[in-house]
Structures are given as C-alpha cells and as structure tokens.
Amino acid sequence: MKLLSASLLTIPLLAFSFMLTPVTHAQAPAEKAEKNPTRPPSSRTEIKSKANQTATGIMAAEAALTPGELAIAQRVYTGKLPCEVGAFVTLTPDAKTPGFFDVRVKNLKFRMFPVETTTGAIRLEDRKAGAVWLQLANKSMLMNQKLGQRLADACMNPAQMAVAEALEKNPGQSVLDVPAAAAAPATK
User: Fold this and answer.
1) Rounded CA gap, 100 and 63, in Å?
2) Which are the contacts of 124, defined by CB distance < 8 A and separation ≥ 6?
3) What is the pTM of this model?
4) What is the Cα–Cα distance from 127 to 60, expressed in whole angstroms?
5) Fold (CATH) for 67-169
6) Which of 19, 45, 156, 164 has an alpha carbon 20 to 30 Å from 34's alpha carbon atom?
7) What is the residue extent of each domain of the chain?
8) Burial category of 88 from C-beta neighbours within 10 Å (exposed 0-12, middle 13-18, buried 19 and up)
9) Tens digits of per-residue pLDDT, 87-119?
C-alpha cells in the first residue's frame, strides 16, 4: 500500500518537473522548416511585410478605375474655384494615379475619385471621409454626407458662370409648370 501511495505522489511531481524543463529541438527539423516555403512567417518583421504587401495590392486594385470613371475624370473642372461667401475649393488631379483628385477647402483635404451617376452629374467621392463633390452645368458643391452639411456651395469656374448667367436670363421650364399645349384653351 505504501508503494502504491508513493508512486501516486511521484507521478504528479514528475509531470510538474517535466513541464518546467525547457524543450530543445534538433537542428535538422528547424533547417527543414526554413526551406519549406509554405510555412507561416516566423518573425514580426515578416508578418508586417506580408501585411503591407497585401494592403498595397488591395489599394492598387481599388485605385484601378473603369473606363467610364476615367472619362468622367476628364470632365472635372480643376484649379481654384471661387464659391459663395468668399470660400474657395481647390481641385488638383493626382499625377501618380489618373482619375483621382485632391480636393481642399479651408483646412480640410480629401482624396476623391469619380463615381458614375444616372443623371449625368459629375460626382467625386471620398468614401472614408464621407465627402462628395457634385459638379453640375451651372455650379459645383462640396458636401459632407456623414455630417449632412454642405462644406462649400455655388463654386464655379468660368464655363459654369456662363451657364448660370444664361439660366438667369432665360430660365428653363420647370417640371411644375403646365405644358404650353395644356395651358391653351381648347377651341371648337
């Protein structure tokens, strides 16, 4: 009985001491692991490098614009555009990435790209910041969709100013106006 109880006490002690003993590996398996290209990266530097390469690939894929979006980008008015209340918006095309624009207003800067619309309006977006640049025939505006406010309104280049003046002189027919044929009384 004493032998049985003594052996029962030594088993946990042996297991505990085995856990505390450092494990050493033979050099041959480690050398094989280094030659194996499918093994996971072992250092933080390797992991960070692979993550950066993946992120760069994703950003390059996102930067690739469709032919339609590149056509929209060619119609964007660039330069320093005056807006109402003495504000200015500056649109600068990105020389490194065709179709992308840097848009500045006051102390804010956005990196925008064109988005196709069903109305034909030119729309640039910075989805991360929630900013949208809308360019119509007679004016442009910069909005912050996240805050639900306009950052700049009635921004115009010379071509847009000419269209705005023409619309003031000869306003188009409103969708709320009665068509001319329906307004004339029917004669018998």
Assistant:
1) 8
2) 76, 101, 103, 112, 113, 114, 115, 132, 133, 135
3) 0.60
4) 16
5) Lipocalin (2.40.128)
6) 19
7) 67-169
8) middle
9) 999 999 998 899 999 999 999 999 999 999 998
